[in-house]
Design goal:
The complex is a heterodimer of chains A (296) and B (200).
Chain A: H1 3-17, H2 25-34, H3 38-48, H4 58-73, H5 79-98, H6 105-128, H7 132-149, H8 156-176, H9 181-197, H10 202-221, H11 229-256, H12 261-273, H13 277-289
Helix pairs in contact in A: 1-2, 2-3, 3-4, 4-5, 4-6, 5-6, 6-7, 7-8, 8-9, 8-10, 9-10, 10-11, 10-12, 11-12, 12-13
Chain B: H1 12-23, H2 27-37, H3 51-66, E1 67-69, E2 79-84, H4 87-97, E3 101-102, E4 105-111, E5 123-126, H5 134-140, E6 147-150, H6 155-158, E7 162-167, E8 170-176, H7 177-182, E9 185-187, H8 189-194, E10 197-199
Parallel strand pairs in B: 2-4, 2-5, 5-6, 6-7, 8-10
Antiparallel strand pairs in B: 1-9, 3-4, 7-8
Helix pairs in contact in B: 1-2, 3-4
Classes of the chains: A mainly alpha (296), B alpha/beta (200).
């Protein structure tokens, strides 16, 4: 919030209250906020918006939104920070709804969007910290916040980005714990979610193919010397299913971008593991024809 | 060596750009780092991921256990598996089976030079890339107790005892009992029964 805007709020508030004999809670809250006394400002503004004078006051709710936003910014994260952020978002939304003249719209929208973005940002952070459930929770908050202010907003792009990243996070988990196939299922579900929104999403197709292919390879890799021929034939059949499942996704990824060397390499590998040497060789040759700069 | 293996998501470059634009915060970097680390970079086929080589190695180990060499000289000393051609198969045999035994015979895996002048071994695998050597190898080993294993169509007609075949996206093997007999080896019933095809 700019100093000019703070000043404007302060002047408006003070002028509006000049005729009154006793100090107004909102004025006190603003003074505390300006003095950096956020906890005190919070108590005062909470009380102010309960009064008949300010319950329907866009300015009061704007100030409350700013106070809670700044409180949130000073918190390390977690459930309490979530609650404070929710209060800030609710207050700013109240301000926007009550502000029929549009006096405070710019500031309210700016603060609101900052807080909405912070949900997305925190979701990304949670993914990086391998807290996938938390990431999903935050992304859901982000979506709700955006749609609350602008119900017509298309979140398709954000959703595909997030769920692709989520799928990659689950894939990483699965690669670390191959025996726990729930991660494989979750990764499949996340990429499937992307394809439900955007069937032509290159990343989801490519990553789903890779996920299945790698699982098939892992099964074969896990063959032990003690395994007899019937056992290795059974393992092969299971792996064949994964390779077959990988194939249409990789073909789709290739169709979406025929110049990507990674998909040619992927197809070469899948066909090789499907014991289809001719097809494998064909894609290997296509791979070698493309210059390495296509890897970017 | 063949080419294989691919990692996840070079598409994340797009994600990276969009998140960067959107959040304006450093977290996109840490989020994307693991993804970028495993992004696809073409590499030569890693032996660890050469599924055919892994399967062939296991088949060969099982074949060794299910075949009997009549020649008493072949029942002493190391059990020698020779490989011409497939570097990944050789590596797989070394890694998984070279510390094992066939009966009381320790397994010894040898990478043989690309020549038809083959030394005597129990099992000899000749890869597809060296099929041209085979006519001479068959001639040289005609009276040797070496069991030749191949991976090309028509190999049993040419003289191989075991040939890997690709059937319904699976790697299987076919057998020639006649060729086995010529090399003085007895193929066990289990190996016969599990073969895709047996030539009497």
């Amino acid at each position: 919030m700019t100093m000019m805007r703070l000043l404007a709020i302060a002047i408006t508030a003070l002028l509006g209250l000049a005729a009154q004999a006793q100090p107004d809670l909102l004025v006190e809250a603003l003074r505390s906020y300006q003095a950096g006394e956020l906890m005190k400002a919070r108590l005062l503004v909470d009380e102010a918006v309960q009064t008949p004078a300010h319950a329907q006051d866009a300015e009061a709710w704007l100030l409350r939104g700013f106070i809670y936003k700044d409180l949130f910014k000073g918190m390390p994260g977690g459930e309490k920070a979530d609650e404070v952020r929710d209060e800030a978002l609710n207050s700013l939304m109240n301000s926007l709804n009550l502000d029929e003249a549009g006096t405070y719209v710019d500031n309210a929208v700016q603060a609101y969007d900052f807080l909405a973005r912070s949900c997305f940002n925190d979701a990304a952070k949670a993914l990086n910290e391998q807290r996938e459930d938390r990431a999903v929770e935050l992304f859901t908050k982000y979506k709700a916040a955006v749609l609350r202010r602008e119900p017509q907003t298309s979140l398709k792009a954000r959703e595909t980005e997030f769920y692709n990243a989520l799928g990659t996070a689950y894939t990483k988990r699965f690669n670390q714990q191959r025996q726990d196939t729930s991660w494989f299922l979750k990764a499949t579900e996340a990429y499937g979610h992307v394809l439900g929104i955007e069937p032509d999403n290159y990343g989801a197709n490519y990553n789903l193919a890779t996920l299945h292919y790698n699982r098939g390879v892992y099964n074969i890799r896990a063959i032990k010397a003690e395994d007899d021929i019937p056992t290795i034939q059974q393992i092969q059949e299971v792996s064949r299913t994964y390779f077959q499942q990988a194939l249409p996704y990789m073909l789709k990824a290739h169709e979406l971008d025929p110049t990507r060397r990674e998909t040619l390499l992927g197809l070469e590998g899948i066909y090789y593991s499907l014991q289809d040497q001719d097809s494998s060789e064909r894609y290997r040759q296509l791979f070698e024809l493309l210059p390495p700069q296509n890897d970017n | 060596m063949r080419i294989i293996w691919f990692g996840t998501g070079s598409v994340m470059g797009v994600f990276k750009a969009k998140i960067q634009a959107m959040v304006g915060a450093p977290y996109w970097r840490v989020l994307l780092l693991p993804v970028l680390l495993c992004a696809a970079v073409p590499q030569q086929r890693d032996a660890e991921k050469d599924t055919t080589a892994i399967l062939q190695a296991n088949y060969m180990y099982n074949i060794a256990k299910l075949v009997e060499w009549k020649d008493p000289a072949m029942r002493n000393g190391n059990f020698i598996i020779g490989v011409i051609g497939s570097a990944n198969l050789y590596q797989e045999l070394i890694k998984q089976y070279s510390t094992r035994t066939i009966g009381k015979q320790p397994i010894e895996v040898r990478k043989l030079p690309r020549t038809a002048d083959v030394e005597r071994c129990h099992l000899l695998f000749v890869g597809q890339s060296d099929v041209a050597l085979l006519p001479e190898i068959y001639r040289n080993l005609a009276k040797s107790p070496t069991l030749v294993v191949t991976e090309y169509d028509g190999a049993l007609d040419d003289g191989a005892v075991v040939n890997f075949v690709r059937v319904n996206n699976l790697l299987k093997y076919e057998l020639s009992l006649a060729n086995a007999s010529k090399h003085d080896v007895v193929v066990g019933l289990t190996l016969r029964n599990l073969a895709h095809r047996v030539e009497e």
